[in-house]
Each structure stands twice: as C-alpha cells, then as structure tokens.
Amino acid sequence: MNLPTLAADAPLSPSSIQDRKAEHLRICLDDKVQCQEVTTGLEYYQFSHCALPELDFEEIDLSTSFLGQVLGAPLLISSMTGGTKTAQLINQRLAAIAQHYGIAMGVGSQRVAVENPAVTDTFAVRSIAPSIPLFANLGAVQLNYNYGLPECQRAIDDLAANALILHLNPLQECIQSRGDTNFRHLLPKIEALCAGLPVPVIVKEVGNGISAATAQKLIDVGVAAIDVAGAGGTSWAKVESERAEDQRQRRLGQTFAEWGIPTAECIVDVRSQLPDLALIASGGLRNGLDAAKALALGADLVGMAYPFLKAAHESETALSDLMAILLAELQMVLFCTGHRNLADFRAAQPLLRRQPH
User: Fold this and answer.
1) Any known ligand binding at 284?
2) Transmembrane stretches, by residue range (predicted)?
3) Which residues, including other chains, have CB under 8 Å from residue 311's CB and lie 6 or more apart?
4) Contact 266, 210 (CB under 8 A)
C-alpha cells in the first residue's frame, strides 16, 4: 500500500464545485463540526457480558455478505470525498486498506466528475481495489436538475461500481449557498433509475437520519438497500455554517446544527418495519463497539466516515492502525458475548437497554 506523499491541497480546476469539495474536506477534518448535543443513542445500549465464552479468540469470524458479495468484515468506508488532489490520495489510501481487509467502500459525490471529466481520476480506485464492493455516489436531488440515467450510468462506469448510492441531503441544501432545494417528485425518478440501471441502488442520508416511513417508500420503488446515516456524528449544518457567505446562512447552520434522528433510533425503527431490508447503519459510529451495537440492533453493514477520513489524511500507517483496532474491537464484542460469528451474534440479540440518566 505504498502511495504518494500527501501534499498541500489544491483544486484541479477553478470550478466552484471543486472549490466547495476542497473546503468541505478541510472543514470535516475539524472536530468542531461534530454534533455536541444530539448523540447517536448507542450509548443507551450495553451488551450482556459472557464470563465463559467457551471460544478461542482466534476463531472469531467477522465475514459476512451484503447485496450478494462476500466481505471480510461488516464494514463500509462511507462516502466522503473526491475532486481534488488531496481527495484523490485519500481515496487511494482508503481503497488500498479496503482491498487488504475485504471491506466495502463508497466515494464522495461524483457530480464534480460528471461535470468536469478531468477530475474523474480522483475517484477511480478500481485498479487499487479490484475485488471489493465499490459504491458510486450522486445526490438524488440532481435528478431534478437535468440528471438522469446517462449521468448515473457514467458515475457507475467511471468507478466500475457494484452499486449506486443516491444521497438525500435536504437540510444541507437549504443551508448551503445556492443549494439545490427542489425535492419534488423524486420518488418516480428514483424508481426509473432502479428499473433502468444494471446495478442496485442504495439510498442514504448524510447525517440527519431516515425513518421507517421514508425507507418503506424507497423500498416500494425498487431501492435495494438503505443507509440510515443518522444524527450524532458530523453535522453538515455546522459544516455549511462554517463556510457561510452571509449571516443568514451562518444562522441557519447554527440553528439546525443538532437536527436529525439519532442513529440508534433509525436502526430500530427501520428494522422493526422492514425485517428483510438490506440495512446499513452510519452516522456517528466511532469504534468497533459502536459498530457491534449497530449490528446487534439490526444493521447488516456499518459505515464510518470521520474516523477513516482523519486516519487516511494523516498517513497510511494511521489508517492501517485504525483498521486493525476496529476489527479487534468487533472481535472482542463477539468473544465477550460468547459468539463465534456474526450470524450467531445477531440471532442471539445480546444487547441490554440502559435507560438514560
């Protein structure tokens, strides 16, 4: 996994979208855009400890499958970035670690590459990660702004992707300067994409959560999987407030900084209503214990962005260390609850609810 040294960032072209990409990346590396008042809700759950697991730690098996593909662990490097030189290197590092451990990876919104093909290489990591599930990514709202099947197919082809993520971000678009806020009649357009694309469509939020009612509507039109991306992690309202161009934008970002459905609540709500859904949990997950709680609550896959972003920005070594720790934490939860593999772990439902103080 020897990749180039991280250099100072610079947009690859003067386009406003690329400038915004670079700014988002810089701001997201700052702790102050994390939720402070709203939490994931995962802290209200704890595991029932097994003092005699009758297992050898070395036999703990984290392998699983998602949308028909086998994974070494139930982890997704969530959609983050692309479009700049720094983003390119981060994506390369993330792809290398994902390939090494056999986990899934998404990329940031590819709108910038659709509109400026010169930056396509900042997303193209298939040569580094030839066998993992890779997820392309576009904003669902762009379907109301002259995007359709050709643009989505191009994003998939550019990445050689196994699925397309459509992200929902109504709050962010309302706060963002010149945001795209026409979310009318998106469901039939998403339905047309699901019918017309050769790969599954995944729908995710960006950190404000998806309810069971919304998930049901999306599944009814052919969406293959939902990533709830709940509140408790990076607040895109705070991110947009940090890059505000005027007082109105800054005020909106501050007012709605803690808006959203906590991640744990999303998982429980969606899983209770859609027991057979392919479900991804993300939003504020920071370690393997968080990931294990999300899995025990009903997620099939757990996504993380911020921990991977910080480590990948720092160095390959930091990223490798993070990955090793995350896997060890997951294994320890299975071991200390007396389960050899994820199927047994999920079936046992080993969580105890702890009421907030």
Assistant:
1) yes
2) none
3) 318, 319, 321, 322
4) yes
- The pLDDT score that the predictor gives to residue 14 is 39
Annotated binding residue 218: no
For the residues of 299-326, what is the DSSP string, one character each?
-SEEEE-HHHHHHHHH-HHHHHHHHHHH
Residue 72 is assigned to a ligand binding site: no
**Residue 189, annotated ligand binder?**
no
Cα distance between residue 145 and residue 217, in whole Å: 22
DSSP-derived pairing of the beta strands 64-66 and 69-71 = antiparallel
Is 182 known as a binding-site position?
Answer: no
Confirm or deny that 286 is annotated as ligand binding. yes
What is the CATH number assigned to the segment(s) 30-353? 3.20.20.70
Known binding residue 110? Answer is: yes
Annotated binding residue at 20?
yes
Residue 16 is labelled as binding a ligand:
no
Strand, helix or coil for residue 74: coil
The 10 Å CB-count burial string (b at 16+, else e) for 336-350 is bbbbbebeebbeeeb
Quote the tokens at residue 108: 């940031």
Q: Is 197 annotated as a binding-site member?
A: no
Whether 102 has a binding-site annotation, put simply, is no
149 is in an annotated binding site: no
Report which of residues 179 and 204 the model is more confident about: 204
Domain positions in the chain:
30-353
**pTM greater than 0.90:** yes
111 belongs to an annotated ligand binding site: yes
**Per residue in 10-49, is it b (16+ CB within 10 Å) or e — as a string?**
ebbeebebbebbbbbbebbeeeebebeebbbbbebbebee
In this predicted structure, the answer to whether residue 27 has a pLDDT above a threshold of 60 is yes
CA-closest candidate to residue 190, choices 158, 160, 224: 224
Give residue 191's Cα distance to chain centre. Answer: 22
Q: Is the pLDDT of residue 180 over 60?
A: yes
Return the pLDDT at 13: 41
* 238 among annotated binding-site residues: no
**Rounded CA separation 1/92 (Å):** 9
Q: Is residue 172 annotated as involved in ligand binding? A: yes
